[in-house]
Amino acid sequence: MNIKRFIIGTIVSLAAGGFAFGQSLQRTKGDNDIWKTGVAREIITPASSVWMAGFAARTSPSDGKLHDLWAKALVLEDAAGHRSVLVTMDLLSVPADFSERLKNRIRERHGLDKSQIILSVSHTHSGPVISRALKYIYPMNPVQWNAVDEYTRTLESTLIRLVDKAMQRMQPSRIHTGNGVTRFQVNRRNNNVSILTATTVLNGPNDYAVPVIKVEELDGTLKTVVFGYACHPTVLSGNQFSGDYAGFAQIELEKSYPGATAMFFQGAGADQNPLPRHSVPLAVQYGKELAAAVERVLSEDMVKQESVLDTRYNEIVLPFDRPLSQEQLQKMAHKGDYQARWAQGMMEEYKQNGTYAESYPYPVGYWKIGTQQLFILGGEVVVSYSVKLKELFGQDTFVMAYANDVMGYIPSAVIIEEGRYEGDSSQRVYGLPAKWDKQIETLIIENCKNLALGK
């Protein structure tokens, strides 16, 4: 009888223990989607008039604003304590020297390496020049360059403060991802703008995807929405600061979701334009179209991402093609435009160094947020790269360009062969000594594959 009671008691105890163990497993499994996130935002509109970036046709500095420019930061921390930070900015570009200084300061303050930091710009052509980027485009005098330098120093301090604030605001969160679609981008190389309204079929390639990352508090309150699109923010070309369509999209989303922070990142849109363009109402329209695409994704079922973060980074050597001869540069130097200033600069660099750079260290990053893959590319990347990466890794793959270092256009091998602006002369805008060698596409795609495979 005692033995029987012992056996029954043991079974009950084991069952109870098993139930408790099962509860423990269930609790652990239920908590594996809990992240910690922190978000912050800072106005980065210049306090005074400075030269604006993006159009060589401008002949004078800024004159007011349509709306403020913003920098925003999102810090992610997974269940294992691995952190990363995404900084988005309403700026044309982030040059290598500025990016390097900022990343070094973030590393010193927060212990993050280059794989854990993304410095992303929207590429608005209605923002300020920073650092000495595009130094050959604009006919600026020393006083105007000093104003750019002063703004750059202020911006750097602001961005450090921004990241600090985001780090201080960490709280439990959940992350969801999804893809939307909108279609105001037009491949500018393969479509005639002058007959656009009469065109019934647009030629590609294109990528109409609207990648969306939703960050919620544990009670379901929307905290942050990160979204992207692959299209030049060149609706506007005046002298008033604005984020262009991307800025209006962020404003629209923050109106629709009070208390949430909307962050935009640029995709591989170097050969994609918003068309038609050249009016504020069109910029507002495209912003609303993009915001509507994001809202649709937010209102549907999205993929809840497990709290596992993987970040990888590499810099690869991209070779240049043969530079122009000194004779060719001398002929170009007398034209009186930005290409003449570039030719004069190149001759001066050759005089000082006796040679030109033969290659460039190009940044490639890879984040995996749960199962969501994000490729992070520097420069003005054409849409063919996004198309190729999605063929390799799936249509839900996210592709971000204009990140960490915007050193010039990154054309495909086909575009380099065809020439014209993106393939041939665009590198002069950024002060590069020559166009790229055709092998850069293979080098970049292969490096992306290796990063994704952990090689």
Fold topology:
Layout: H1 2-30, E1 35-43, E2 52-53, E3 70-77, E4 83-89, H2 96-110, E5 117-121, E6 127-128, H3 142-168, E7 171-181, E8 185-187, E9 209-217, E10 222-229, H4 244-256, E11 261-266, E12 272-274, H5 280-299, E13 303-304, E14 309-319, H6 326-332, H7 338-353, E15 359-369, E16 372-377, E17 380-381, H8 383-393, E18 398-400, E19 409-410, H9 413-418, H10 420-425, H11 440-453
Parallel strand pairs: 4-5, 10-11, 16-18, 17-19
Antiparallel strand pairs: 1-3, 1-7, 2-6, 3-4, 7-9, 7-13, 8-12, 9-10, 14-15, 15-16
Describe this structure in words.
- This protein is α+β, with helices and mostly antiparallel strands.
- The protein has 11 helices and 19 strands.
- The strands form 5 sheets. Strands 1, 3, 4, 5, 7, 9, 10, 11 and 13 form a 9-stranded mixed β-sheet that branches.
- Strand 4, helix 2 and strand 5 form a beta-alpha-beta unit.
- Helix 2 packs parallel to helix 3 (142-168), helix 4 crosses helix 5 (280-299) and helix 6 runs antiparallel to helix 7 (338-353).
